Every structure is written in structure tokens, then in C-alpha cells.
Amino acid sequence: MSSTSPPINTGKKDDKETGFLDQTLRPTRWNDYIGQKNVKDNLHILLTAAKERSHPPEHMLFYGPPGLGKTTLAHLISKETGANMKATSGPAILKVGDLAAIVTNLSPGDILFIDEIHRLNKAIEEVLYPAMESGVLDIIIGKGPSARTIQLELPPFTLVAATTRIAMISAPLRSRFSGGVFKLEFYTDGEIAEIVRR
Predict the structure, then answer these.
(1) Count of CB atoms situated within 10 Å of the CB of 185
(2) Is 176 in contact with 129 (CB distance < 8 Å)?
(3) pLDDT reading at 32 higher than 50
(4) What does the pLDDT read at residue 21?
(5) Based on C-alpha coordinates, what's the Rg of the chain?
(6) Residue of 37 and 8 predicted with greater confidence
(7) 3-state DSSP: the chain helix, strand, coil percent, rounded to 5?
(8) Counting CB atoms within 10 angstroms of each CB, which of 24, 39, 94, 190 has the fewest?
(9) What's 143's DSSP letter?
(10) Which residue ranges form the domains of the chain, and what is each CATH number?
């Protein structure tokens, strides 16, 4: 192949283009988000209660097939609460240190969005429990008899997680989403028509 050959079209969109399209098409207000009425009503109650208590909302989990708006809901929660959102995914968190780096860099009230949370490995999941429950991160330094645990205080934050495989999430992790576990339903024909129209 010569150096002057045209680039091969792989059929994949440029990441910049895809990101721009996502931002352009994603609703930015609750009223622009079509469908999922029950979920939206419950979230409104949850967010209103949190605002009245001057406390970050409780942790919440969204599940359902791809394309139903789980990530969009996380963005809307961030906008509604006026909080910054840090986004990552289960497969991207490979080591406990990765999780520690993310949560220790959160500011008070931030939202941490973890997509595909069912793909977190068990060791990382175990470290996430105290972070969600009591706002601390337990890190083990060293190995064997000389190993010691240090506890890092975390700022109050809200974990918003999404999964397409609810059955793969362990019961202990699921029970820590005190704000609720929400199932997203398929859109009706009328809702799809409204989304396309907008």
C-alpha cells in the first residue's frame, strides 16, 4: 500500500463528531426528556427532598436495555442539582487505585456516574461499599503481616450508576442504592414520534 493511498473508511464515526451529536441531541431540561414518567416522578420527589435537606441526593441505579436514556437521566440529575458530574464506566476501573483516584478528586455534592457498573470486579466493588455507605475509602497498603489499612474521608457525593444487566449486580451492591433502583421501560410509539419530532 502506497503512502498516498486514501484512508480506509471503517464506517466508524469520529469520536468528536459523536460526542458533539450526543450533546446536541441530549435533552437539557426535565420537560424535554420524553417518556419514563414513573421514573421522572420518583426522581423529582427524591431530588426535591435532597434539596430541602441541603444534602446530596441518595445513590441511585438505572437499568434497562441500551438506548432508553440512563446516561441522559444522569446528566439531567446533575443539571437539576447544580452539581458537577464525573463520568466513567465499570470496565475503565481496573484497579482499586483507579477508583481511589476518581472518588478522592470529587468535590462536595458532585455526581459520580458509572456506566456498565455490572462490569466492576469484585475487589473494587468491596471498596465501593464503605464509600457509598459512610463516605470513607479503606485502602490497604503493603502485603502480609506488615499490611495496614488507611481510611480516607470522602466529600459527600451521589453515585448514579447504569447497567443493562441488572442480574449481574450483586445483592450487597444493589442494596446500597438507597435512592432507588429504577427500571427504564421501552418507549411507546407516541413517545418515539415525539422524540423524532423534537
Answers:
(1) 14
(2) yes
(3) yes
(4) 55
(5) 19
(6) 37
(7) 45, 20, 35
(8) 24
(9) S
(10) 55-197 (3.40.50.300)
